[in-house]
Amino acid sequence: MSFVKFSGEDATWVRFADSRIYIGDVVDESKSSSMGVGLAHFGAGEEMPWTPSYDEAIVVLSGEFTVERGSERITAARGEIAWVRPGPEVIFRAGDEPVTLAFASHPVWKHSEAAAAASSVLHPVGLAEVEGVIR
Question: Which residues form the signal peptide (predicted)?
Fold first, then answer.
């Protein structure tokens, strides 16, 4: 098939550490060798340190989302896109309200050795645990 529709129900969900941050992969290495696509939900004020070793486009679906690296900072609101390049650690942060995101990474983020090593803080969860996810 040349096109497919996905929702939060199709995602494989994980929770970041003991936070209210949920990441759901919908296109992973089982569906594509060239890119990853997913959804994420951050509770209000939640932050996630991460070292990206891949390009990632993050589309804000609701709320405000900030990406920081050292003194560099951008904040994207609903309908805006944050592009994160590989490099040193970034901080992903939700604003005062919960944030829902869609993301695409190249290549599939799990293919990176650095990301695979850092993924030990990700814990599988069921859809029922994911608060506020778009279905």
Answer: none
**And the tokens for 37?**
């696509």
**Cα separations in angstroms, 11 against 38, 99, 113:** 7, 17, 22
Quick one: which H or E segment has residue 116? Answer: helix 113-118
Whole-structure pTM value: 0.84
Can you say how many angstroms the Cα of residue 43 is from the centroid of all Cα atoms in its chain?
A: 13
Let me know if residue 46 belongs to a domain: yes
**CATH code for position 62:** 2.60.120.10
Q: Which residue has the tokens 């890119």?
A: 35
User: Taking Cα atoms as reference points, which of 115, 118, 104 lies closest to residue 34?
Assistant: 104
Q: What are 8-59's pLDDT values in tens digits? A: 889 999 999 999 999 999 987 777 777 889 999 999 999 999 999 889 999 9
Q: Which domain holds residue 77?
A: 21-121
Whether residue 52 has a cis bond before it, omega within 30° of 0: no
In a domain, 126, yes or no: no
